[in-house]
Amino acid sequence: MLGWFELPEGASPGAADRLLEALVGKLSGEGLRLAGAVQVNRDRGPDCACDMDIQVIGEEDRPIRISQSLGSGSTGCRLDPGALETAAARVEARLTGAELLILPKFGKQEAVGRGFCSVIGQAILDDLPVLLHVSREQRSAFAEFSGDLAEEVDPDALADWCRRQSAGPG
């Protein structure tokens, strides 16, 4: 099962990342065996874009910087696609034995078949439930990617959904 959620319009930047980070802490504390990653944005001050790091679950002491500093006045995408691919490979290497896969989002890289797409595909093949955030901008690409495998989850019910999915059928 592929669960996804969207936050209400007007949610603060990074709110989905913070929600997933708290969810991982809660579920890990309950003993669920999780694989995946969360994104942590580090504020650099009012005149600077935040630094974006991926923390692979189980490797929190080895964050992966996925943003690039492009300098003041730049307008290009700050994502470092190579670093995101490194994060995806590290997550995929940790799937064995997991009860649930949590990923930061289905973003622009996933919309073009990169990023965490192969990890999601492997999880689906392994019958490992997946939870991730999907923004309005990527909803149609996600629907095309996921077909009838996806289920929208209310953001207030994420923990319950994860518990039900990790319990398996029956």
Annotation, overall tally of beta strands:
7
Number of domains: 1
Radius of gyration: 16 Å
* Number of helical segments with 4 or more residues: 6
Might you state the CATH topology name? Rossmann fold
Mean pLDDT value: 89
The CATH superfamily is identified as P-loop containing nucleotide triphosphate hydrolases
Envelope shape:
globular
- CATH secondary-structure class: Alpha Beta
Largest sheet: 7 strands, mixed
Commentary on this structure:
This is DUF2478 domain-containing protein. This protein is α/β, with parallel strands linked by helices and 170 residues long. Helix content is 34%, strand content 21%. It has six helices and seven strands, in the order βαβββαβααβαβα. Strands 4-3-2-5-6-1-7 form a seven-stranded mixed sheet, sandwiched between helices. Strand 3 (51-56) and strand 4 form a beta hairpin. The model has no long low-confidence stretch (mean pLDDT 89).
